[in-house]
Write a structure and sequence with these properties.
Layout lengths: L1 E10 L2 E9 L4 E5 L6 H9 L6 E6 L2 E2 L10 E5 L10 H6 L10 H13 L15 H14 L4 E5 L7 H18 L2 E5 L3 H7 L2 E6 L2 E7 H4 L6 H6 L1
Parallel strand pairs: 3-8, 3-9, 6-7, 7-8
Antiparallel strand pairs: 1-2, 1-4, 4-5, 9-10
Helix pairs in contact: 3-4
């Protein structure tokens, strides 16, 4: 279980305060207006920013004492953050070892990840030779080879067209189920939540205003802010 308890953070006059419990194996979509704290929430879990107070635990183990690299987290961003001068295979291998000192098992893991995201044969291509969807597949493969149980996705498919975004969401859902991950997906598209998520959270004014099973979430009619957003 991933637990956030009274997690507080402030930035440029905006205050955030998050509390929630997410069961292991859940796929949680996080929606809400711009500035509501969606990316901030993921950055706190990943360790990219430090809260002023509160607790984060995963599997009953505290995370706030761990550096970002030590946390059981992989993250995929809207900007794929690939190294443009390195080929696909090397970009993915960096998820295993920043020094690129890989065992044969590690090489096999990279090959398997490439195949799983549909990029077998693309090993030596540079990011500039790939489409936007292909670059995001590389970023997803790099997250997979890290073999961390928490997968955070910060609007990774926002720049893709509807058909390609749907394909990528289907792939993420399949990988989530195959590897029994706990997945958090930030999206501005409510339909992404409907199609992929077991649970959906609505953030507003730096708070988690609604957190519910997805089917029940979209049946809510008595929350004015949620209704206006949708």
């Amino acid at each position: 279980m991933l637990t956030l308890k009274d997690l507080k953070y402030s930035y440029e006059g905006t205050s955030f305060d998050f509390s929630m419990k997410i069961d292991q194996g859940s796929f949680v979509a996080i929606i809400g207006p711009s500035g509501s704290g969606k990316s901030t929430l993921l950055d706190l879990i990943a360790g990219f920013i430090t809260p002023t107070s509160g607790e984060i635990t995963f599997d009953n183990k505290p995370l706030l004492t761990l550096r970002a690299a030590e946390r059981p987290v992989s993250m995929v961003f809207q900007e794929n953050n690939l190294f443009t001068h390195l080929d696909v295979q090397t970009n993915i291998a960096l998820g295993i070892s920043p020094t690129l000192k890989l065992s044969q098992d590690d090489h096999n893991t990279v090959t398997a990840a490439l195949q799983r995201v549909g990029l077998k044969g693309f090993e030596k291509r540079l990011p500039g030779e790939l489409s936007g969807g292909e670059r995001q597949r590389v970023a997803l493969a790099r997250a997979l080879v890290r073999q961390r149980p928490l997968l955070l996705l910060d609007e990774p498919f926002a720049a893709l067209g509807p058909a390609l975004r749907s394909q990528m969401l289907t792939l993420v859902k399949e990988l989530h189920e195959e590897k029994n991950l706990t997945t958090l997906l930030v999206s501005h598209q409510p339909e992404d939540a409907r199609s992929t998520a077991t649970h959906t959270a609505f953030l507003n004014n730096g708070r988690i205003e609604v957190f519910e099973e997805t089917e029940k979430f979209f049946a809510i009619k008595d929350n004015k802010e949620l209704t206006a957003y949708l």
